């Protein structure tokens, strides 16, 4: 049987990354996965090769309009749409269609938080496509609707999770996360122009205002089984891809206790790399991969635990997690088609 | 009278920046400041234009060896040497010679801290060349020995100082500071190669091990008049210059209280720019200047104060502070020759 | 007497660079130059500090609309407008007002070339603001209307000029010029987003279609006193500023003949730096300066002359040349306020 | 049967890239290819994960010394050594061992050219691992000694080859090629430090002195069946990977003639992408792939043909070509394990 896959929002970076991964997926090469409709909004009618010049095998595909009719008849539909547009599409497709949403619409459980951070009405909550969370792998495997985590939440949660699960830190965490600019999407804005970004480092969404804050808080509070206060500061750096999350919390535990907790939490996880003691990750080493690479430290003088996590925001942070969730939901090998060796240097 | 200035360690980035500023200094243009001996270690004998290709007016100067004999006969001697080498030079020069040391040797007051972080014996403590600290301007103005602050400390201290002076935050601060790679100096190392740095973001010196940690702690503890616990994490980003410091501390004060404290602390300071509420700095806007640009925020949900500061690590972070100190000590206008408009974009 | 200066198009990169230079101009510091009206199109009404975050001294200025009324009453008006808009403004201002146009409208002498490359009707020809051209310094000094050269033409012409003046190369030249993205202006376009530009190098305007081609051809043909065929290929590289022009032409002359010709042509030119034999420039060394730095080579095996020139496209390539022209036209020192030491590294 | 593969010089960028590709090679995943000894010079004894932090699956491998004894017993040996060291290793291994040399030692046919450009004595000539050259695929397929082409030659030759094969241009070509800094290797040098490279563009090896010049000349002269004069200028740009070659030659042919020639020459070539007329490549779109992407143009005003080619210097430019050659020589599918979708943006 051939699984037919559509990508809605194929002109954006999330859509492009999903297509990059699907092109190299072993099921595609074996003829078991077929890349079907590719849709867009204002870019409908455009040749894909004019938008994603790296997708050589799909260069002559023409983007169609994002409508339920075009997306019907596919086994899997990936959504890479601006927030607020996923529900209408999902409602119009059969419940049996596997829908993997890279947008924010179905990530939050608390309707008030949704309204506070995104405005408008909450569309609902779908299974959260982060199989590394306790108990979550089975939920994703059985789902036909999956909400792919945000890029900052992916690295922030996975870098802090075991510390909170094991109760080794105070429930107040400070996360400063530096991201390449592909995370800001492909809409042309002056402050994302290369001339503004190159040679400069800029904080934005300071003071808890970034929309990924409640998503991080939700997952960490569940892990800690108590409310966790999250100070989250995103920073834009001059790279295309990659997020480095610097996570700090007060602790009286030893580094050995942390290592035990992390090794236990991530035992057998194919996409989490725990670095040897004293080493810390860089985003360059995970470029193009579905990996999260983590380094741990305890600063006894200031009484703090410092964990550093690195991720490719477009792969594990978006498109890779989407494909990982698809693999699980289709009963395929979870890691199929997901690179684990970075394109470095 | 003409002031004759020497630069020891002229082949490095600190020395080069001092020369850049001296070339454009109005006293140089007026013939009142003369650039005398330029010295180096292994680069002695080299044409300056082969090392600092931006210093067109000095391109044909030949570097001499760094010895007391070569440096003698100058009114001002800037030192840009590896740590541990400044004391011997200083001891061999007359007490009346103004020595401005860009190295770390004379910054710390606590000899044990020196030994812990740098090894070997503490050389002593010189007036700290940060005129913006309470009471410090007068001390610097009257000194003939000045220790230029480190680059990370400059931006970290100035970004947090008023909050601690006013007692508005708990005495536990988290600083995550992203730096361009010129801060790591000019020695060739594999991990500083462009191929390793470009497209990547990397934390280093994690867990309180970076040598600038005790320097930050010293200044902030004095401001708070109590011990301040500092969690400091430096991050290397792919820019040549610039540090962005993200500083977080728990607070119950309001943003208005912080603004009052910062406006009071920096009233009349020519090199501190307090951004309007809701705006935050980027390193690009201070490129080549002696400015520190600061934005403030209170995140009420997590109970934290977040201040962001940006500085050019080579200008205000090193060479600019050195010239600022020289200006003060010579009785010239403090801001002479110090750019306040960034080279942007 | 105080000279009052307006900048029309102050929100763009050319306008911002002129303001950067005017802020540091000695006549401004002495109170002899006053920065008057700053105007914009869609950005009228905006605080300058929100657009050019590096212009700290002017941060609270509010942009006005670009109209003749607002610009009236100034001694000098700089124009940094999209092409086609300068003539109407110029016509509405008195002939005695010094107008320095950073746009393309008045650079070309041949009306057909204008129509071919820009479309529409030719507005006329103004004195060309490149004082380094033979006989041009006097023309600029006596003008009240000046057309600032394009950025690619500036570096291409100055890098090749002496070779053509001396008749040392065949009149067919190949120029490949790599530019930072500030040269493409500040309008938000997808292909100028940092995520598209970083880590990538891209040719554009290939095959003689770039609008700067006829401007280069015009100047080189005049220098050679015969038609010169110019193959010009611009390349976009991931830097904010800087153009490196690689210029090649067939020759049977020796490197010594070229050096004699270049030294003679640029004798006494403050803004042209001829590197020692065997050295070649990089854009980083001229960052923020009004310099053109040039290296020469003869490849005897292939029978070619290769000259490499570097320039900051926003300074000598636009705003610096504009201020240089203003200085000349006002009878001030030609180099006043124009940096000659690069911000490097 | 399992093919056992060794990599000598595994600590460098070429060795690292070969390992990246071998990790994802389908024969590795199927257990038919085994990664055996990994060797180095001064890095012998080091954990691979400390040198290539992207190679997660091989992180705990320890580098051995590069000796014939360590390399014996492997079916395939990749060499990524400084030039001059390959012959001794090759002589000590059995003739049946497939040796794929990423160095320059066996690329040139003319011993005098070798001595002129590299010094010392010529070691010999091996089959040239560029299957896209006429008649070369069969030679590589039958070889046990293969010389991998240089990175600049790969893109230069493939971008110009059909024009010269078809006799459409004069036999004098100008190539200006911009490269990321990984092409300069991993030895720490001041001029390759990020602080020197970022924000700057620099020509080097100007005037026909770069060692890749005779290699380009050799291939193009053979294609043209007459001596071709090559003016080659390499330029260093601030990216990690990627070369963009701008190739110019005088012509009186039409663009249609060129398109016919290129389509014929590259018909069926999996790794050559000919862009639609009017489009030109960027290095970002081929990042991490074995592709060469080419755009064509004729500038009728200047009478020149301009072809632009893009390649990833470490993949198709080194490690990818090495694996492609191995695939051919082992009778495997030529494209196995070689990415054709770029990691973009």
From TrEMBL, chains A, B, C, D:
The lineage of its organism: Bacteria, Bacillati, Actinomycetota, Actinomycetes, Mycobacteriales. GO terms for cellular component: cytoplasm. Residues 4-141 form the Semialdehyde dehydrogenase NAD-binding domain. The keyword Kinase does not apply. The active site is at 151. The keyword Ligase does not apply. Its EC number is 1.2.1.38. It comes from Gordonia phthalatica. CDD domains: AGPR_1_actinobacAGPR_like, AGPR_1_C. Its main location: cytoplasm. It is found in: Cytoplasm. This is N-acetyl-gamma-glutamyl-phosphate reductase. InterPro entries: AGPR (IPR050085), AGPR_AS (IPR023013), AGPR_dimerisation_dom (IPR058924), AGPR_type-1 (IPR000706), NAD(P)-bd_dom_sf (IPR036291), Semialdehyde_DH_NAD-bd (IPR000534). Pfam families: Semialdhyde_dh, Semialdhyde_dhC_1. Belongs to the NAGSA dehydrogenase family. Type 1 subfamily. Catalyzes the NADPH-dependent reduction of N-acetyl-5-glutamyl phosphate to yield N-acetyl-L-glutamate 5-semialdehyde. Keywords: Amino-acid biosynthesis, Arginine biosynthesis, Cytoplasm, NADP, Oxidoreductase. It catalyses: N-acetyl-L-glutamate 5-semialdehyde + phosphate + NADP(+) = N-acetyl-L-glutamyl 5-phosphate + NADPH + H(+). HAMAP family: ArgC_type1. Pathway: Amino-acid biosynthesis; L-arginine biosynthesis; N(2)-acetyl-L-ornithine from L-glutamate: step 3/4. The gene is argC.
